[in-house]
Amino acid sequence: MASDMAGGLPSPADGMSGGGAIGRLVLMPNALDLGSGHVVDLRTQLPDQAIARAAGLRHWVVENAKSARAFLKRVDAVHPLVAPLQEMQIVELPRAAHKGRAAPSGGASPWRALLAPALAGHDLGLLSEAGLPAVADPGSALVADAHAAGVPVEPWSGPSSLMLALAASGLEGQHFVFLGYLPVEAAARAARIRETETQSRRAQQTQIAIETPYRNEALMQALVAQLQPATRLSVSCGLGLPGGWSLTRAVAGWRREPAAFTPGLPAVFSWLAGP
Amino acid sequence: MASDMAGGLPSPADGMSGGGAIGRLVLMPNALDLGSGHVVDLRTQLPDQAIARAAGLRHWVVENAKSARAFLKRVDAVHPLVAPLQEMQIVELPRAAHKGRAAPSGGASPWRALLAPALAGHDLGLLSEAGLPAVADPGSALVADAHAAGVPVEPWSGPSSLMLALAASGLEGQHFVFLGYLPVEAAARAARIRETETQSRRAQQTQIAIETPYRNEALMQALVAQLQPATRLSVSCGLGLPGGWSLTRAVAGWRREPAAFTPGLPAVFSWLAGP
User: Fold this and answer.
1) Fewer beta carbons under 10 A from the terminal one: N or C of chain A?
2) How many CB pairs under 8 A join A and B?
């Protein structure tokens, strides 16, 4: 049942199919430029061999079929696809899987059927719209099903806006937490921000959150209003894109000089309270 | 003071030096094969354009000079270095920086002098021995100094054993915490494990920890002994390497069938308690 990982080193049989062997679930990163108005060169964000691995897959489970086809066209420009795009089997994750948890141990999972190509011996790609699948993104329930079904999981390195933001922040990288989205309702959000600051101070732990772009300004205002003046707050906007930026200041500094978000670009927010 | 990031798109002046402009601090990922006995192809883990960016840098601050020279030789095999290796300026991070925090706002940092090449207009690479600099690794204090000094920070995508393990685990990827190392002392470690399980259940948050390879077995035994039988526990070993594996089971399953660690290979441990 061990999920042997190619470790980025495709085995000779990779991309092949059929036979008696079980296929792998290949966790394929995507670029970070979705909806940004930019189309970056895939080779700036994905390893060349990951692009080659993607080019060899005929079966995909994806967050969004349209963006997956766009990804495969970009792959094809670097490494020719093993088959024409219209011959690829591209299946979207059920909407429930976007929020879904794995089925309880032994329980039937509604999306285990998606693993059918792997169980039939074909390697199967898992792709989200941006960044790493199953990290701050749908897909983990399918990966859990793969473990339960004995399908080896093969993760590839690629861009993670969270890790880019954390590295660029200069905040504590040895202890951190990803909070996902904070509450939208103002009082609940304020309480949550104060709670995270207490935890950050106690554990010297960087707190990381994301927001939908049109709410970036509102989240930033709440952070600047609720956090202590000496707490360091980092904002990274449009990571991996031309004109992207990362800026870390004490909250007092942000009060004097507010952030200027680029409309439509995703941002990552990180903060660390002093000891 | 905004740290414009190339977003993986080197500007025309990249790799150039001198002039009046300030240089950038380039956060360069390294491969994940340190000490494993394997030397993976860099192109399986790093974007081609990141390798090209590394090839163009003459100034480096690194976790370890010897491993940095080995990295640059591997870079040279893909994209020729801009100058002979012996002409590169390679400076090690002070040992204090390995555990160090940024100096308080306005305070003098003992390693700000390391930024001198950037302040003189040269792009400056930051490299750790494996994976992303400043993430579960030294370097964040230097990045904080760069922000304070107005040196733009340019992070590149690359391999993160934490993110590979999280993606491969099938556990909750929308909420997670990186704990670093757990206490070595048995009673403190047991208490810490129980505390993390409570937090995992409360927040449906994946807990991620690392250990030095020779203690992998001991940590695994402690996790299996302390966590509840239904808690899912994932072990990823030798990520990014041939023979690397990822396996997720309920703790009850690990009690029946213990993990077989590969000696010397780093492992990442992740767990998630049921709601």
Assistant:
1) C
2) 255
Please list every residue in chain A whose beta carbon sits closer than 8 Å to the beta carbon of residue B5.
168, 236, 239-240, 244-246
Q: Who among B5, B144, B167 is closest to A132 (CB)? A: B167
As for the ipTM of the complex, it is 0.91
Query: Which stretches within B79-212 are classed as H helix?
Result: 95-99, 116-119, 140-149, 161-169, 186-203
* pLDDT reported for residue B96: 64
Question: Is residue B15's pLDDT more than 70?
Answer: no
Name beta bridge partners: A272: A232
Tens-digit pLDDT profile for residues B78-116: 999 999 999 999 999 987 655 544 444 444 566 789 999
Specify the pLDDT at position B120.
Answer: 96
Residue B263, Cβ density class (10 Å: 0-12 exposed, 13-18 middle, ≥19 buried): exposed
Indicate yes or no: CB of B144 within 8 angstroms of CB of A43.
Answer: no
Question: Once rounded to an integer, what is the mean pLDDT over residues A10-37?
Answer: 73
B19 pLDDT higher than 60: no
The answer to the question of residue A49 being in a domain is yes
Cβ contact, residue pair A178, B177, below 8 Å? yes
Fill in the DSSP letter of residue B86.
Answer: G
- Considering only CB atoms, A3 lies closest to which of B160, B168, B204, namely B168
Q: Tell me if A127 sits within 8 A of A154, measured CB to CB.
A: no
Mean pLDDT for chain A overall: 89
Domain membership flag for residue B135 = yes
> Residue A9 domain-assigned?
no
Query: A136: distance to nearest CA of chain B, Å?
Result: 4
In this structure, the answer to whether residues B132 and B167 fall within a common structural domain is no
pLDDT at A138: 81
Rounded Cα distance, A128 and A113, in Å = 19
User: What's the rounded Cα separation, in Å, for the pair A32 and A39?
Assistant: 9
The angle at the Cα of A116, spanning A112 to A121, to the nearest 5 degrees, equals: 135
> Pairing mode, if any, of strands A267-272 and A153-155?
unpaired
Looking at the DSSP assignment, which residues form a beta bridge with residue A61? A91, A126
Nearest chain B alpha carbon to A200: B177
Question: Which residues of A fall within a CB distance of 8 Å from B250?
Answer: 105
Nearest to A105 among B178, B242, B250 (CB): B250
pLDDT at A136: 84
Q: Is residue A145 part of a domain?
A: yes
Q: Which of A49, A163, A179 sits opposite B44 (nearest CB)?
A: A49
Determine the residue of chain A that is closest to B171 in CA distance: A140
Give the C-alpha separation, A240 to B6, whole Å. 7
Report the CATH number that the domain containing residue A263 is assigned in CATH.
3.30.950.10
Structural domain boundaries enclosing A61: 25-155
Enumerate residues 6+ apart whose C-beta is below 8 A from A39.
A33, A74
Per-residue pLDDT, B12:
33
